[in-house]
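Hi L., both proteins are below.
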Amino acid sequence: MRAALATLAALLAGCGSLKPYPDDAAAPKNLTVRTATSGVHAELDIHSVDAQCRAPYLGTVKLDRPSVSVGIPADGWTYLKFEFASSSLLRGSHRMTKETLLRTRPGHSYEADVSYKDDIYNVVLREKAPRGATRELPLAALASCAK
């Protein structure tokens, strides 16, 4: 029982040691993440992607509110890693990730619906054009950068 409580505390407290993603007030907030996760801790790691498909870590956004808006680079590749963590006495601790490589375009905005329900983790990503047309984007592995 102590081990389960220690694991839960580490999961919840350990996230505070991550580098917060910079919140530049002057940068447009072009990514909105809507979160519906009951009983699960969720966060988003944001990485830039260079020409060699390396993904340096930029910071983490806690997804602890129903909606969070951030500004990500508006012209190029960004790697998004959605992480879910849970812990219970009966099941122990569990981590799940959903990752995607995103090609952002100037003037476009992006929406991510992040959810957890009935042991199913889901991320749906959409791109919204300047004139309002919206399309769903498939989740893509970082390796697809080289193609």
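That was the first. Here is the second:
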Amino acid sequence: MPRKIPNPLTALRLLLLPALWAFALLNWQVSLGLGLLVAAISDAADGSLAKRYPQFTNGKFDSLADKLLTFSVVLWLVILKPQLFTQHAPILLCATLVYFVSLFTGWRKFGRVSTLHLHSGKLGGLTQTGFVLHSFLFGGYNVVLFYIAVGSFIMASLEELAVQLTHAEIDDEHTRSILPYLLQRLK
């Protein structure tokens, strides 16, 4: 088996963070949006690079980059779009609660924070990316896109929680959905 090395596209996302933070702090929202577009494209492409060259398969490194970028995006939204948080506090509190329950459950049950790459998480990431890019590139925000993005985030967090609660062990690299477990239980 080849030695695992960091995926250069994942490393690019991490290296973009300081520049993205500078754009956010300078309120250069279009530049921030364009930088996030580059990060999103690199995130989409790093999976195919890892499939083609197994030495670049490193789910933990990818999850670290994803979590740091996601946390940063939330902070940028707080800084640049505070009305999101004042106008939609209940749904955002619900999303935050479900996410942290999922994180805590994985840490408590498996002794680590989960690095699952579920299909629902990928779909959620796509909708969230669309919302964030639209918000920064075009100013303001679209309420429908907001609710689709937050709803998909909640659903992905709930599925991750369900996987953690129903599995004695989880293979982070290969578990993609709760559906195989549910189908097996129906037999």
